[in-house]
């Protein structure tokens, strides 16, 4: 009966890198109170062990020295959280990795204060700690004793810290950086002789110090070896300080006292410390939590800083000594001369230059980071976020862009990020440089004509005469600038070959290898000027072909190794061309539209072994009025065209030129150009009744449509098209294309200035390239053999090629919500559940039965992004409807259905439009139930809302008619928090509400079909009774039924668990009172999540509760409801606590019960700042 842990998805609060004696790299990740060990090479989870009982892990330190005399027994890893500490040696780690120990809480040591940071001594078997009051502790095994000893060392101050770092400078000295609440950084050192000394007190930050990092020794440009300190603060700045020995350090165990450390110090009696700040920069969009140095050994050292922040980004900065000047004399170099900063009045020796931003997490906060060197000397960065995701990416410092054959003028180093040994590469060309490498070189500058030649100079005597007479001098006409050629359009011929046209009509071919070899395709003599200043091109990489068209309507084809040739035409200026693959005939087709005619022409591409492909005209399609084609595809043998306004036209081209159907989006849907039409592949399914296809839109959404045709005797009789999935992608808004690779769905498009490639099946970013935005010529070719591709684009009149053969980062562990989860709801199948969070997203998950805890996982099926405020409540109705609510009176109806070979489809079927005048109320709770068929049709639902202004509204909802108001009610001025339907009897709805006053109120309302409210009618819900249950707010509620009673379990702000037993008769007779049983102090904090778990007997059940005390408790309840014992029989209840465990989920927002596996085993799902699953057993 005891609760046992199943799975956790929590913020990753600490990370470490551990190299085993055999050379295997491991990632140590701390999630809640659990330590998880991953293989850094295979990303496999090796072990999951609970470290602390009742405490989240806050930090981890790994010994950098593995070879000691007593290496077997030496401390390898220190883990801390709060005032708890665990030290692990090699044998301990081996047992954890081999899963011989699932829990090590018995070995935990408790110290006197909150631990900020720890460092393992490299020379002995001890560990030193800094606490939140700037106290230094040493933990060690006394010689000849098994018990671990803790010794308090000398400390120069008792400041309150938000951050700290420490390093062993030598076996006898420890260097400490202490970041205080009041914006100071106290640098001090401790000697094993028992003395401590303040070295520096740094001021300048305008907020609390959230992160500090002491560097390893680095070589300065003047040849001096120094340590540096990086700091970050609530003020969003990063500062770098030099830790040179102070000329006037403070006395031992003494610190100078000031009011606060905010701002630059102006006190005359304080040593000059701001001069030691050599660089400062304002970086992130919000608070910065931590900083780390990356130092390359060179002369001088190449120094980088990584910063991690609340904005979920990791940012890389290079520290450049640009203002570092040496006065050189005959006697040698003098110290550096600081250059004053005019705006601040003090000097800076260096600059922090932004190199790259890594954004691989969602929501808020990167809480943890680990950095280590790989075998090829790259830096590998591991980040853990509040979303529970762990990302890895490599840093390689080299030139941002290498140019062939011209050199790019850039001095700043850049970072290439890749989880493999093949970093991305960017190349750049100027057109003139390319043309100069061709055999038939002619300049990219047009020849100057006679009209463009400069006028002759005016004789001096003419100028003098004009000056004497006072008349105006003749104007000198400036010569016209020569016209310069430039890049125009791009298309890929194959994966490693592309075609580029220029404004002068030249056609260039680029062959991609380690570099790019250029050649030029010669246009036929008759088409020499057709591509000048205007060209439309479409690539068919699958058949090594590109089609080109110009202003005259002639269509040209280029195939690798064959001459450019005219292969067809449409008689007028081509507007656009579209590649189509016909899976029925296994052939490619080309759709061509023109500017002069509302006719689109469909060609079949016929391949030839000896010449370029040629085009065979198949059909002509009459386009609807104002229908501008933006995409085309063939689905189930029919031609589907997408338009600029979001319409779809469907043709049976073998029978008619006119569309057989025109699909238009709903009026309330924002529509834009459909950029892609892609049939959904059928994988292993042979009995698919419906076909499906994908469309991408330039609104940031993509859609999946079901497609069904019914045939007559000789042709298609009818077509049914329905949108079954409409999803907003995590990037956008310009989604340009979609494709499948290894059964995974990919997209590319633009977000702000970046070109983004996205894996939708696994929800991760493949590429993010700063190209300047969407308004440019570009082409992208996905790789057939890897997750990557080639991207060509124009920027500042130059051609850029970005080559990437792997994703921008690797995902060690998938994450979830990046903010607090407020609501959860389980579908009737018991394994699919939905969560809604403050990040405004709804996620639909599946949790299947696993053979071991290591195999247990949450599979994210869909991410829904439509709410603009945090999601407050979720509820399923059957398996096909999900309802969600939030602030600003947001309420959405989601239609959920299975899509073969894809997963689930989600469409927003309706939104609540009957808003108040200000539209700023919160929907605190709601309930949904079926309306009986006699009211109207069986698909009508009753939806009742409780609003934050204490009003209640009940609506009839149907897909066709939307929301129709049936009845309203008002409680008091007290805010309602819960609403639940009880039963529907004879067109009367009985329901209950709970509020911040601790009361449960029963209501009834008439919802008969003829009571739908008009503009002048107002039917009211009527109170039946009100009963005081809790001392304050009722936070959570669940209900179960017996044949004679309904039982309500509630949890409140007063920490109490209450069970109220109502006879059904009280719905008709207000004199009947419920029997209330209250268990005071059921938790030590507010109960915020509660679920009833029915058992075999209706009078026996379990209640699972959780709350702000981070405890999950199970209660067994037995009722005595003997109704045959007479009217005087006293109702009885027996309650017993049968489980009590700590959950690592803080700020618990909700609790639900899953039913997993064939036996429908009950599991408790706890959600808040993370998710936790517990086995309930029998």
TrEMBL record:
The keyword Membrane does not apply. Belongs to the WD repeat WDR6 family. The keyword Repeat applies. This is Related to WD repeat protein WDR6. WD repeats lie at residues 202-243, 814-845. Its main location: cytoplasm. It is found in: Cytoplasm. One of its GO terms (biological process) is tRNA methylation. It comes from the Eukaryota. Keywords: Cytoplasm, Repeat, tRNA processing, WD repeat. Signal peptide: none annotated. One of its GO terms (cellular component) is cytoplasm. SUPFAM superfamilies: Putative isomerase YbhE, WD40 repeat-like.
